[in-house]
Amino acid sequence: MTKPAHRLTPAPPTGELVDSPPFPAAARRELANPVQRKNLHHAMTTIRDKRARVVAERPDWEQMRVAGEEIKDRTLRHLDHYLLQLEESLTRAGTTVHWASDAEEANRIIVGLVRDALRDEPPQVDPEGRQVPPEVVKVKSMATQEIEMNEALEAAGIAAWETDLAELIVQLGHDRPSHFLVPAIHRNRAEVREIFLDEMADYGRPAPDDLDTEPAHLAGAARLHLREKFLRAKVAISGANFAVAETGTLCVVESEGNGRMCLTLPETLISVVGIEKVVPTFADLEVFLQLLPRSSTAERMNPYTSLWTGPTPGDGPQQMHVVLLDNGRTTVLADDFGRTALRCIRCSACLNVCPVYEKVGGHAYGSVYPGPIGAVLTPQLRGTASAVDRSLPYASSLCGACFDVCPVRIDIPKMLVHMRGKVVEAKKADRMPHSEAGVMRTASWMMADHRRWGAAMKGSGLAGRVLGSRFDHFGTLPWPASKWTNARDVQMLPTESFRDWWARERGDGDQPAGDPADRGRDPSTDAHRASDQRAHGSTEQPEGEQR
């Protein structure tokens, strides 16, 4: 196979995700899209309400969350053991196992396997008589997106076709996914119709000329377009929701049936599986196959749950390969606290409740993994060298809603703070000075001497009196303060400091006026004591009464 002179599949947006602008800049860009904001608000509200109803049906929901957490934690503590057991089980079942340390190695393995599988295949033509390039069909997989597998195959002269409806919309729309579960959640039906009418004819069966925006008709157009690809495909590529170490069984859950077509019709199946997807025993699936559908699609069980344990003679793919992918996961595993992000089962529940994600969508995160979990997982997988990765741990209000809904109890708010600490340490290691560090050093110098601090407070009060006569708050300020004020209204400086108030009300010095016996006492202690007495009842006894 030689590299084609033109693209075989629709081109995605230019540039690498790691080179995306920092989250604040990307968020401003996305906020300027009112159609997307409306789409997201409608979708998020619907999904949240449905999830709440199906979760409420289970009185043991919290116990199931704890069980999922404990299974994942046990697996991560002994991941080396379970991965070797998985390799043995897969091999025993007739599946060939490949290990990939990074994206480059994984893509090299996958391209080689596809070339080997298609080497002796004769050229094919589509129903319109056009020659079909070498191709594969795909089950929805975030791991393959993470390693940019589609582009690696494109460069090798192989067309990789998405078969999930939302992924197909994204691919034909020259777009990127913006959500774990619903990659085209930022698109509405009118946009989907236009994409199908404009693009389908260039890559296979065209959309009907009279296509409207009815969901059933849009799905029907996609079904007809994909059917010819399913029927002629010799190679399929999938991910896996879970990989069972005990039996070598892989599991994929989905809602449309396209995954089942990919897993049964082709002759060769290649599955790209992150090393964190392993679970110890088949019985462990009982927990996750209840947690995942309720947390993701708000269903009691997924419409299609496919499990396979190696090839079966005369039934389904006869050549099966599993590529076990690291790509930074062992680095995450080395962090005793950060490793809890590897519990993630990609349900998207944290995205669906996040107020930040609902406003800006997934493209603002510059990562395959958007939302709260992406804000902590991406900087661990990719490091904190890029501007976007350093900004992601701050892409949150720390409201805690993500932890409340996470089916495996990942404490994302605490992890965000943990990752912010790592970003600060990374900045300290830079040779270039940072404005934040300079501001903190200046504040430390000022607060270290009461006279300097007092002078600063008097200056602040004077500024408050002068500016407060004209403004009630600060708007956007020049750089470097613009980094804070571009997205926040800052209250006007007070006209009087606490020190001045104290001197006016209690005395003219550091010592409060009044009873000499009270001098030197910390007024905050009295305030706390009074507060405790109001909350719990006074502990003082009436005069003359014995305890």
Automatic annotation (TrEMBL):
Record field: transmembrane: none
4Fe-4S ferredoxin-type domain mapped to chain residues: 341-410
The region called Disordered is annotated at 1-22, 502-547
The keyword Oxidoreductase is annotated on this UniProt entry: no
Stretches of Basic and acidic residues bias are at 516-537
Q: Does the keyword DNA damage apply?
A: no
Q: Pfam families attached here?
A: Fer4_8, LUD_dom
Which positions fall inside the LUD domain?
85-325
**So which domain of life are we looking at?**
Bacteria
Q: Which UniProt key words apply to this protein?
A: 4Fe-4S, Electron transport, Iron, Iron-sulfur, Metal-binding, Repeat, Transport
UniProt protein name: Lactate utilization protein
